[in-house]
Amino acid sequence: MKKKNVWIILSKFIGGVQHPLVQKRIDWKSMKKTIRVKPLFSRFFSPERIFLLGFAGYILLGTLFLWLPFSAAKDPIPFIDALFTSTSAVCVTGLASIDIGKSFSFFGQVVTILLFQVGGLGIITFSTVFFVMMGRGISFKGREIVQSTFLHTPQANFMVILKSVLWFTVFFESIGILLLWYRFGYDFPVGHAFYQAVYHAISAFNNCGYSLFPDNLVRYQGDFIVNLTVMGLIVVGGIGFVVQHEIFAKLRGRQKRLSVHTRIVLIATGILILGGAVLIYIFERNHILYGLPIRNQILAVFFQSVVPRTAGFNTVEIGFLTNETILLMIILMFIGASPGSTGGGVKTTSASLLFLLMWARLRGNEEVNVFNRTIPREVVSRTIAIIFASGFSVSLITSVLLFFSWGDLAPMESRRYFVEYLFETVSAFGTVGLSMGVTPDLNAAQKAAIILMMFAGRVGPLTLAFSFSRKAMTKSLTYAEEGVMVG
Fold it and tell me: Which of 166, 282, 331, 468 is most exposed, with minimal Cβ within 10 Å?
């Protein structure tokens, strides 16, 4: 190899080191530092840490904007409430310690729109699109993070799917805006109706649940357009972009069969929505639904079956629901939406695989088989770890809320707080946003705990744990086996 070619290669690799005809003096110390810094940077900034730091940085940026005086409608927003609101918006949770419509100015409300729009699709996704628009390539880590966010298996047509994510978002949100604008036009001036439609459509598609109305959507309990539009946006945003891509490809004849992932998501989503609606009607027909017109009853049960997975809108008062319905909603919130979507929770696929695993064990099968396919054991093992880590996180944060609760009430008098705090914690973990009314009354320590729960629920407990580990997962040593009694 010629000497000139060697210098060209070195100059491209190191950067800043030019051909000796142009630069005679070479700073060898800078070269050594550059070579040492790159491996150190690569080791520290793993994909999990980049993913977490992206969310954390965007939350802090949103907090600063919401904390500014002109973001408040009247009095300045306390820092803890600005942080709580920013975390809830970026993590598309929807829990609010203050009234969004009354506490924030127009500027502050627009900031929340940007927070849950970018937070719903992912900071890395928008960064990737920005770099592509600027004509720059995508790093291997960036591609790895985005692929793991939206795809169940890496695919060669990565950019096609990334573009479809943005097109689906624009398409469905635009339809939602037009339908809600038409309906809100009967209640508000044209300009204000359009703004309300934009806010609620984007909030619904990203499964956030923020509303500018003080009663959320209770006033539209029997309205077909509002209910069906919001439910449709929540479901479409919650099934995952890879499922949307496969369905459209199937309808256009570009794909012969749906993947196992897509079929599990569609079946699980249908069962949870229909089963949840039937059970809510059974539990509430003589309580909160009693005396309502049949149209309101049907829309209310389906709406409250959809929103726990995972958007915090409501058309009934959550605090007045029966204990049976509260327990059902806790289960639905814990399951959440589907992978690769804007929602949270342990995901519909995890719940489905756990059920299939138990069914396989009852039938004496070692493998989990579905649709003539065998699910890899490492996927099943990861599912069990995710569900266990999620349950442990919920238990821990609920305990923190109980420990820092105000007052020295007798056990019988404070019993209701257990249910309310458990509901609040699961809602934060599932990035749902439903509340039994205790959110505004939380103290600073409790708000900090819910903030942590919302963050862990959005990025995933295992991702959060892996980001703190120094070494990647490697094959461990295997010793002689010895059994223990279980079950």
Answer: 468
CA-wise closest residue to 193 among 213, 215, 216, 173? 213
Q: Using an 8 Å Cβ cutoff, are 161 and 155 in contact?
A: yes
The reported pLDDT for the residue numbered 15 is: 44
Which residues, including other chains, have CB under 8 Å from residue 182's CB and lie 6 or more apart?
Answer: 225
Q: Pull the structure tokens for residue 275.
A: 């089963």
* Domains held by the chain: number: 1
**In Å, how far from its chain's centre is CA 284?**
29
Residues found in the chain = 487
Burial code (b: 16+ CB inside 10 Å, e: under 16) for 50-86 equals: bbbebbeebbeebbebbbeeebbbeeebeebbbbbbb
State the chain's maximal CA–CA distance in angstroms: 89
Distance between CA atoms of 265 and 31, rounded to whole angstroms? 51
Residue 51 forms part of a structural domain: no
- How many Å apart are CA 13 and CA 11, to the nearest integer? 6
Q: Which amino acid is at 446?
A: Q
pLDDT in tens, 20-72: 444 445 454 554 444 444 454 455 556 566 767 778 888 999 999 999 988 98
Report the pLDDT value the prediction gives residue 365, as an integer from 0 to 100.
87
CA distance 394 to 457: 10
Q: At 21, is the secondary structure helix, strand, or coil?
A: coil
Kindly report the number of other CB atoms within 10 A of residue 457's CB atom: 32
Using N-to-C axis directions, what is the helix angle for 158-184 and 190-205, rounded to 10°? 140
**Residue 23, token pair as written in the block:** 């630069």
* pLDDT, tens digit (0-9, with 9 covering 90-100), for 435-479: 888 888 888 899 999 999 998 888 776 666 555 555 555 556 778
Query: If you search the block for the tokens 């980049």, which residue do you land on?
Result: 50
User: Which residue range(s) make up the domain with 37?
Assistant: 1-44
Whether the Cβ atoms of residue 391 and residue 299 lie closer than 8 Å to each other? no
Note whether residue 464 is domain-resident: no
> What's the distance, CA 154 to chain centroid?
21
Q: Is 7 a member of any domain?
A: yes
- Find the range with the poorest average confidence among 151-160, 260-269, 315-324, 408-417: 151-160
Q: First and final CA of the chain: distance in angstroms?
A: 68
How far, in Å, CA of 196 to CA of 188, rounded? 9
Q: Do residues 447 and 80 lie in contact, with contact meaning Cβ atoms separated by under 8 Å?
A: yes
> Are residues 125 and 162 in contact, defined by beta-carbon separation less than 8 angstroms?
yes
Percent of the chain with pLDDT over 90: 37
Q: Report yes or no on 6 lying in a domain.
A: yes
Per-residue model confidence (pLDDT) at position 476: 61
What pLDDT sits at residue 85?
Answer: 93
Q: Encode pLDDT of 149-169 as tens digits.
A: 555 555 555 566 677 778 888
